[in-house]
């Protein structure tokens, strides 16, 4: 079972382009549709839980699936398989391509346009399932509007809580399909230990860093804190990381932006940007430390939450709250589709044409994602030489 988890997660880690929204779509296709490791309702509830928790939501969903399948070790293997391919690629970028202006390369821009198509297709599919009526569509639209106008981590947390309240008021008395029982192979004692460890590291690492002035502890503190205070996925963590590594002189602004461009070019979670930064700061061991530190809060929280989630999700109030949260997730994803995904990729008429064609190939013609990636890369390299619309 562990080998199967590792093989499937590694396959996803090698092919999951497009950011957190697209990852949820890939997970749904591989884990739910093809392998039927859990039902649709359980997967939607797991996604909703991960929206409540800080950290990279798509990576937490992958960890959660691994934990539910084979315990804590299954979660570790699922995380390693999904994360290692992009970590290795970004460490290579850091060690071999430092100083090159890779952030403006045409093939990277093409991958950004691929992300637009993949995310748009994912939002369209999730919207049909999670916002089928006026109330839920309204929650999604209001969430999208406020997320775009007030793009802060705090506003996103407040919106999720308000959506949960709205869902409880609107849907708690409706007959919802019974939630299937989750068999969580983690004890409550282990869960409580993980939750205490999460809080202890969050407050303890800054104190240790201040008293010891150890550079390795400083790296662990910066990346652990960044991973602990971010809701909504990888793009949200970028400004936090920039404030942690650029002003103190660990990395230049130019190298930071080049690494961000490289991160867009690889599959897997955007949080693996930490591997690039760690490699730039302290070489390979710096990459290992930064990667573990930024993902550790997410792992501790998902292990700590799952044993208590089974009971909560089966109550009428929680079912209504989850309906509201799922609708809010659609709104947050719509906002993310526009900014930063659309705004960083669709800059010209040619970009929009390529994005529209890729969306059609993916959604209507059902072409596989790897073909879309190849066409997007080629299109991104050709676009700079075109004069259409100029």
From TrEMBL:
Question: Major location, coarse class?
Answer: membrane
Q: Which UniProt keywords apply?
A: Cell membrane, Membrane, Transmembrane, Transmembrane helix
The answer to whether the entry has keyword Cell cycle is: no
Give the location in the cell: Cell membrane
**Entry membrane topology:** Multi-pass membrane protein
Coiled coil spans: none
A molecular function (GO) term? chromate transmembrane transporter activity
- GO CC aspect terms: plasma membrane
- Determine the domain of life of the protein's source: Bacteria
Which family would the database say this protein is a member of?
A: Belongs to the chromate ion transporter (CHR) (TC 2.A.51) family.
Record protein name field:
Chromate transporter
Which species does the entry assign this protein to? Paenibacillus endophyticus
């Amino acid at each position: 079972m562990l080998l199967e988890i590792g093989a499937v997660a590694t396959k996803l880690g090698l092919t999951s382009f497009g950011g957190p929204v697209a990852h949820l779509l890939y997970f749904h296709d591989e884990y739910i549709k093809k392998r039927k490791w859990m039902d649709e309702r359980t997967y939607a509830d797991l996604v909703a839980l991960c929206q409540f928790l800080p950290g990279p939501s798509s990576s937490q969903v992958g960890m959660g699936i691994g934990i539910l399948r084979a315990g804590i070790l299954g979660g570790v293997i699922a995380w390693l398989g999904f994360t290692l391919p992009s970590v290795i690629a970004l460490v290579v970028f850091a060690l071999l391509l430092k100083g090159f202006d890779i952030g403006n390369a045409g093939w990277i821009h093409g991958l950004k346009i691929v992300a637009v198509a993949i995310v748009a297709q994912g939002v369209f599919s999730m919207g049909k399932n999670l916002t089928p009526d006026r109330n839920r569509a309204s929650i999604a639209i209001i969430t999208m509007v406020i997320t775009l106008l007030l793009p802060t981590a705090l506003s996103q947390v407040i919106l999720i809580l308000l959506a949960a309240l709205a869902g409880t008021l609107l849907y708690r008395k409706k007959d919802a399909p019974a939630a299937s029982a989750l068999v969580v192979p983690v004890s409550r004692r282990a869960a409580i230990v993980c939750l205490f460890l999460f809080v202890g590291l969050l407050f303890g690492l800054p104190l240790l860093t201040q008293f010891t002035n150890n550079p390795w502890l400083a790296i662990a503190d910066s990346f652990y804190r960044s991973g602990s205070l971010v809701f909504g996925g990888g793009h949200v963590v970028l400004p936090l990381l920039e404030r942690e590594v650029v002003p103190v002189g660990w990395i230049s602004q130019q190298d930071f932006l080049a690494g961000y461009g490289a991160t867009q070019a690889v599959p897997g979670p955007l949080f693996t940007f930490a591997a690039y930064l760690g490699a730039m700061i302290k070489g390979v061991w710096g990459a290992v430390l930064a990667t573990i530190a930024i993902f550790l809060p997410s792992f501790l929280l998902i292990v700590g939450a799952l044993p208590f989630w089974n009971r909560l999700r089966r109550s009428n109030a929680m079912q209504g709250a989850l309906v509201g949260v799922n609708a809010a997730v659609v709104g947050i994803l719509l906002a993310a589709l526009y900014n930063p995904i659309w705004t960083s990729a669709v800059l010209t008429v040619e970009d929009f044409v390529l994005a529209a064609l890729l969306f059609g190939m993916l959604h209507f013609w059902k072409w596989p994602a790897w073909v879309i990636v190849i066409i997007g890369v080629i299109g991104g390299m050709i676009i700079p030489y075109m004069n259409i619309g100029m």
